[in-house]
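Dear colleagues,

As part of the handover before I leave the project, I'm documenting each prediction I ran so the next person doesn't have to rerun anything. This entry is a single chain, and its sequence is reproduced below.
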Amino acid sequence: MHRSSLVPSLLILAFLLAFQPIEAAFAARSQQSQKKAPAARTQPAGKKDASLSTSAEQLQKGAAAYESGDFNSARLILKPLAEKGDDNAGFAMGLMAARGEGGQQNFKEAERWWTSSAASGNPLSQFNLGLLHYTGALGKKNFVKAREFWSAAVKQKQPDAFYGMGVLLVNGAEGVPKDVAAGVRNFEQAASFGHPMAELELGNAYRAGEGVKKDRKKAMDYYKKAAAKGLSEAQSALESMDAEK
């Protein structure tokens, strides 16, 4: 079952990459990154704390340069941190490469940065790697790898990964058996974080009774949530349901 309301894969790529804020990602994970940052056993505590503080300050400087649109400065600041294994900086470097900010768009370069970042447990990098494989941005679609990376991000409760898993499971794909009920459960997880496209898909599911028991009220409730976030498809669905009365 492939529903026409599912956003085409390249639009998913454009939408999700466009709205991943670097500064917010840094804020959410900076404390966790500092806790797991490696330090030499012989390094005095004072020097270790100073090193962590300096890295955090550089991350914030890089984020500020990025937010101001100074991508060249952002890259100069963040690249050394990413090369030293900072997963937040690696995520940012990959995002700029994927968007073509401060240089030409280069998904292979994005993959390289995100692979290093994802290995350190960064959920946004894990999600984006899955997205590259899902869309075929690297040259060939690989739905098994997409599921692998999204599963890792789902374990960290990354909302876009829940949505991606929902898309994969509702439709099925090469190497990924269709499981509509499981797909809807992933949409529900994404929607619990306020994910608008997941809310739209849940409206569709409850309206048609696909993967869940048909429920007109729940369908309208989810459509309203998605429409309030600006999804025109959700607003059209609401108007269509009103016309059915």
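Residues 1-7, 31-43 have pLDDT under 50 and may be disordered. The CA atoms of residues 203 and 221 lie 7 Å apart.

All the best with the project,
I.
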